[in-house]
Prior knowledge:
By secondary structure, this protein is mainly alpha-helical. The protein has 13 helices and 8 strands.
Amino acid sequence: MFGLRLDPIAFSLGPISVHWYGIILGSAALVGLLLAVREGRRFGLSPDFFMDLLLFGVPSAIIGARIYFVAFQWDEYKNHLMDVFKIWNGGIAIYGALIGAFVCGIIYFRQKGYSFWRIADICAPSLIAGQMIGRWGNFVNQEAYGGPVEEGFLRNTLHLPGWIVNQMNVEGTFHHPTFLYESLWNLVGLVILLIIRRRPFLRAGEALFFYFIWYSVGRFYVEGLRTDSLAFHGADWAASVLNALWSPMKTVFTAQGFLDPSYGNIRISQLLAVLLVVASIAMIIVRRRTGAAAEHYNDPIINFKTGLPAGTENKKKTDAANGNPPVEHDGGMTRGADESPIKE
């Protein structure tokens, strides 16, 4: 035992052990749900809409994250298949989680009659907030850390509290708290996202693209510090480009985390981060030039199955139950049955 390592088990109920990892991930999902519900109300979307999304989305994200991780670590799991299901020990990949969640979201939003881009925009802060909180699960499990550092760097340069410094002591060696770097980066991104989504310049889909860009930039540089990166053998020129992009960080962190050359020369998460940034910027430009992003973030969300603004059908049912006159809709303008159309 080195330092004062935190116990990854929060408490036990008889033979059942409840891990901090699961509690933290559950808390991340709950915070994400609350953010989405609160913003969804502005557009007439009910809390049940997001509750159902959570019930389908979380399992899809976990399954996607685990499949992604295991696929790149198959040699370690092929002879221990039961370990594939032990997610409480860590070993899930965020890009796999995003793939699983987005596949679920595309199907769910379409079934409900809503544009993927409009609902994904609402969920973007939930995603980055969930990642911000979820990284603390890695902290408790002592995983996803960076290369070795001096204890003085953590205490005197970064001025971290003792309980974080002690947890970064892994088998007698202190390591970069990459979980903290990424968590703080996501916190800043969350604040920016909450601010810009109220600005009139933001078009449909662009809150999601901002999330992709912000998260990927931070992940690219943090990933370079880690010693457990999923990697593969790729072209030397590609590896050189990624190393060159990371090189400005040498002024702060000296060197990247160790990557065994026999394992690979390209960190998968770094490559995906670069591709996501390029693709997101390209999508913003193309969607604006082609008119695909004609809607703004703050425009009413229209259900393409009914042609009505979100929440209208529920309101009509409530009005009918209360004996109120029906409400007609004309081009997004609302008037009672006995009222003349609103004119501008």
